Amino acid sequence: MASGTAASEAVKIRRARKADLPKIIALDERVTRVPKTEYWRDLFDRFSEREQGRAILVAESNARVVGFAIGEVRAWEFGSPPCGWIFGFDVDPEFRERGIGSCLLDALTTFFRGCGVSTLRTMLRRDDTLIMSFFRSQGLMAGPFIQLEKDISE
């Protein structure tokens, strides 16, 4: 583990269980300041361990969920061959800069390789410098696609 981590504070990366759901919801809300309970419940229902190509991983320290990573293999959207998409990722602010994010990303990468894909993708806000810096430090860079959007509220 990186500096700042006590020797007794081992972090384990594992598949999320239903009992982790309240902890993940609380961590996500603490970080984003947006309650998304129904979103998370629906996600857990769709991402059961029986599903191929989908994973919710948690980082656990002393029985406390201190991070999570969520991804799935997606294929053929806009001509893209199958690749691993990360669409949920966070580490408890109290546990950052201890290598937990790297461990989560490594575990998710291993999962995706086991699914037969060789490309990893994610999407994030341009102004989210924290997660941008993390992903770039892990070797992710701009890919071949660009996101377009239009306000359709009227």
Main traits of this protein?
disordered N terminus; 154 residues; Aminopeptidase; single chain; alpha+beta; five-stranded mixed β-sheet; 4 helices
Task: Kindly describe this structure.
With 154 residues, the chain is an alpha+beta fold. It has a single domain, classed as Gcn5-related N-acetyltransferase (GNAT) (Aminopeptidase, 3-Layer(aba) Sandwich). The protein is 30% helix and 23% strand. It contains 4 helices and 5 strands. The chain has a 5-stranded mixed β-sheet with strand order 1-2-3-4-5, sandwiched between helices. Strand 4, helix 3 (100-114) and strand 5 (120-122) form a beta-alpha-beta unit. The N and C termini lie far apart (50 Å). Mean pLDDT is 88; it is low at 1-8.
Topology at a glance:
Blueprint: E1 11-15, H1 21-32, H2 37-46, E2 54-61, E3 64-74, E4 83-91, H3 100-114, E5 120-122, H4 129-137
Parallel strand pairs: 4-5
Antiparallel strand pairs: 1-2, 2-3, 3-4
